[in-house]
Amino acid sequence: MPPRYGRESQEFARVLNLSDALFAIAMTLLVFSTMDASGVRLDATMGAFSGQGAELIAFVVSFAVVANFWWVHHRFFAVLGFIEPGLIAINLALLGAVALVPYPTSLLGRDPTLRGTVVPFLLLLSLIALLHLSLLLRAGAVGAWWRRMPEGLLRWVVAGWGSSTAVTLLALGVSFAVPAVGLAMLLLTWPAEALVRWRAPDAYADWG
User: Fold this and answer.
1) More confident residue, 105 or 44
2) Which residues form a coiled coil (predicted)?
């Protein structure tokens, strides 16, 4: 049997602390990767924002998406009873992908309507969404929950996470043809998951 580290163990806490720290650093670096103060007009009241509309869009979109990914990650760890090597490996891959977010965000800030900026951004978000889904499936396979999950609920949780992942992948496909539309489709990830939540059993709120 591979080693298992319970939620009260130091190993569990270290994995969780590393995850939260990396999310926080990635979210902080977003502003440095998008906003450029060298061209700011100091003689204008709103000079700090003039000519930086694209950069602001890139920052707001990326921050909202990464914050949502952190919330999903937080909810996932809240229902874990232990971690094991498989979960740790997938989580490290996820953190590596999150650490990359500031780079495509900086490209997006140059022009959020071009294929060369939108496609890399959505490609990375799709990878992060798939890794989140992989964490869920791995936890279900090894029964890593802190208490017994109600019968049949796992497929609802997979459907909820999978719906937003599917929307992100669809947005990626659309972005090859119409980049701006693909980027705007990210707004549909929340309604897609909310629809599953609305139809799911009441216990979904404690696990999803």
Assistant:
1) 105
2) none
d(CA 128, CA 123): 9
* Residue range 81-97: mean pLDDT, rounded: 97
Residue 110's pLDDT is: 86
